[in-house]
Here is the input.
Amino acid sequence: MSKPAHHILLVDDDDVTNFLSREMLKIYLPSPQIDTVLNGQEAIDFLHARADQPELLPDIILLDINMPVMDGWEFLAEFEKLKRPGFEKIHIIMFTSSVYYEDIDKAKTYAIVTDIFSKPLDESKINDIISRCS
Amino acid sequence: MFEGHPTHCKHCIIFLLILISVSQLFAADDSVRVQLKWWHQFQFAGYYAAEKKGYYQEQGIKVKLMPGDPMHAPVPQVLNNEADFGITGSDLVVEYANGKPLVALGAIFQHSPYTILSLKNKNIYVPSDLIGKRLMASPDQGWTELKAVFLREGIAPDSLKILSHSWRNTDLIEDKADAITAYISVEVNQLRKMGVDPSYILPINYGIDFYGDVLFTQKKLAESEPLLVQKFTTASFKGWAYAMSHTSEMADYILSLPGVKERGVTKDDLLVEAEAMRKLILPDLVEIGHMNEGRWRHIIEIHSRLGLIRDIPDLTGFLYDGTQKVSSKFFKNAVYISIIVLSLLLISVLYGFSLRKAVKKRTEELEAEIIERAHAQQLLRISEQRLEMATVAAGLGIWDWDITNNEVYFNDQWKMMLGYEPDELANSFSTFEQLLHPNEKAGLMQLLNDHLEGKSEIYQAMIRMRTKDRRWKWVLTMSKASKRDETGRAIRLSGIHLDIDNIKQKEIELRQLSQELMHSNRELQQFAYITSHNLRAPVANLISLLSLFDKEHLSERNHVFLEKMEMSVERLHATLNDLNEILSSRANMAEKDQVLYFDQELKKVLELISEEIRIKEAVIHADFSRAPSILFSRKVLHSILLNLLTNAIKYRKPDQAPEITVSTEEDGEFVILYVKDNGMGIDLEKYGNKIFGLYQRFHDNKDGKGLGLYIIKNQIEALEGKIAVESIVNKGSMFHVFLKKKKLSYE
Here is the structure.
C-alpha cells in the first residue's frame, strides 16, 4: 500500500448505504478517512474546495449512479472537464445497485472509471477495490 | 368487256345501231391521214385497234396511219397539211404558245415516257452525273422536257455535251455516247435484250410531270370539221381502250405491220412495251384522252421558266371540247337517248346470267366474309367486355400518355375513383398534377423522369390524390413505357391507378399501433428496470445490515425471528437477481449479428465451465461438419450453450459421468443445434413444455432455479427461432435449437 491510510469519498444519496459503507470500510480497512456527499454536485464542490491542497483529495471515490441533482454519469462528465493537478490520481469506482450490462458497458467507456461494483460492499469487494486502486 | 361476252354483244349492237343512226345524220364520209410519232410499235396500238376493230369504219371514216421517223416530225407534218392528225408529246403546247394553230384532242399517255437512258457500268443515276458527259438528244423527241429536269436541278444544259441522236442503241454500248434520250417503254427493254444493264433518269422523280403522247390536229380542221374530229377522236379512244385490254391480240397484229419484224421486234418486246405503257396511260384509272387544264398550265410554266415560251397563252383555243363544238339540240337529244339506252343496257346486263352468277358468287363470298367478320367482332367485343368488367371490378383506373403529342387519356374509373363524374375532369396532364398531393410532387416527377429517360425498369409509386370532397386518397400508380424512341426515351406511357386507400389507412393504423406498443414496451422495461433497481438497493442494505447485526445477545426467540428475516431477505435478493438477469438478457437482443463458428464459440463456453467439467468428469463431443457457422448474436449463442451444457452436467445420472454431444445441421432457413446428454431425462408426459416456463423445476435437491431454459427460450424466440426437447427418463435428453439464419445484408 502506497499510503498508510485510505481516504475515501462516498457519493450516494442513500443514508443507509452511506452508513453501511462507512461501517464496512471501517471494519476491513485500517483507520480509513471517509467523507460523504449526497450527490454529484456536492462531490464536485468537495473536490473544488480542495483543489489547491492535493494532499486533502481522496484516493478513491465510490460513485453511485442514480442520484438527484447530479447523477453519476453527469458527475463523470463534469469531473473530466476539471483537469486540476492531483485529480488524475483519484480512482473512481462506480458503486451501484444496477446489474445491467448497459450500465457496466457504459462505465467501461470512461477512461477515468477504474471499475464498477454492485452493492452492497462486503469484505471481498473491499479487498478488490483496494487492490485495483493501488 | 363488251366483245368478250356474246350475251353482251347483242346489247352492244343495239346500242351502236342507235348511235350510228343518230350520228350519221351529220357525218360526212371523210378520209383522214394520221402522222404517228414513230415507227410502228405498241405506242400506237389504240389507232391500230380502232382501225382493225372497225371503230373508224363505224364512224364512217377511212383512216391512213403513217409511221414516223426523224424526217417526218408530226407537228410540221400536220401544219404543212401533210397529215390531218398527229401524235406528239407535251411540246405541242410550246408550238401553240409560239403561235402555231394547233389543238390538243386528248392525252393518251398521262405521264411522259421520256427518260435519259444510260448503262449501269457508266454510273449515271442522277442528272448531276451527266455534267461534262455526252448525251444524244433530239429537239423533237423529248429533249425540251428532259432539259427541264436539268434546269430544275440547277444544272446548265450547256454543261452537257449534246450530240445529235443517232437512234442506235449500240452507240451507248460502243461508248459513242454516255447517255441517250429514250422511251422508258421501249429502249430500256431493247438494251436488256442486248445483254446490258440499263440505268435511267425519270423526269417525274425531279418534279417534271408532263403528258406523254397527245393526239392533236390543226385549228382549221377542228373548226371546219368538228364532227369529223369528234368521230375520229371517239373511235381512236375506243380503240385504245380495246388495245390496252387485248395486248396479246394487238401485239400479234403489230408484228404483221410493215417493217416491224424487220427491225427484230418480237411479240415479247411488244408485250413488255405494253406493260410499261400501262403505267403511263393508266387505262384503269383515267379515261383515255383525259386532259386537265391545270396540268397544261404547269407544263407551260416550266417551259416558260426554260425561256421556251415568252408569253403565257390563253388555253381556250388549245383544249378541244367536242360537246361544245357540236352543240346542236338534236345531238344533245341523241346523247340523252344514248344515256337512257346505256342505262337500260346496264340494267339488262345486271340480269345477265354470267353476271348474275358472278354476282351470286361474290355475294356468297361477301356474306361469308361478313359472317366471319361479325364472328371476329363478337370475339373482340367479348374480350373487350371481359377487360372492361375486370377493370371495373378491380376499380382500376387507366391512363395513357402520348408524350410526343402530349395527349392524355383517363378512363372513367380513373376519375370516378376520386369522386368525379367522367365529364368533370379534362383529359390532360395538368389534371393529374393539380390533384396530386403537393408533398408528393417533387419525388414523383423525379421518378417519372427517371423512367422516361429509361433509368428505371418500371414506374411505380404510392401517392395521395385529392378527391372531389377534398380528402386525400392513397392511390397506387404503376406503369411501364410502352414505346421508346431510338435514344431510349419514352414516347408513350400507359398505366393504371389502383385505389389503395383502405390498405394504406390500415397500414397507417398498424404502424401507429405498433409504435404505441413499442412505446409501452419501452415503458414497461423502464418500469422493470426502475423497480428492480429501487428494490435491489434496500435489499442490499438489508443484507449488509443483517450481516453486521450482533446476534450474540439476542434471546432464543428473537434469534429465530432474525434467522427467518435473513432467509426472507436472501430469497428476495435471489428473486431480484433473477429478474435482473431476464431483463438483461432481453437487452442483449440488440447485439449485432456476426459470423460465428460453432467450434470456436463452444471452446469459449467450455472454458467458462472448465472447473465444473473437470470435477464432474464430463465428456464433451462436438460435430459441426454439417453446419460449421452461422450469422447470429454471440451473447445469445453463448447463453444457449452455457445453459444447456450446465443443465446437462447438473442433471447427470448419479452413478454415471456425464457425456454430452453437441452438433449442428442445416435445415432450410434454420441451423439446428443439438445438445444431447445421457442424464436423468425429464418426464415429458408429465411436464410437457412446462420445462421452458419460468421457475419450473423437475428435479429435487438441485441448485437449479428453473430460470435458464426460460431465458434461452425467450432469447431464441426473440430471434425468430424455436427450441424443442426429446427426453426419456433415466436415458437422457436431446435439445433441438432452431437458430434462424440471418442474411448478411440484413442490418
Q: What stands out?
A: The beta strands of chain A are 7-11, 33-37, 60-63, 91-96, 113-118.
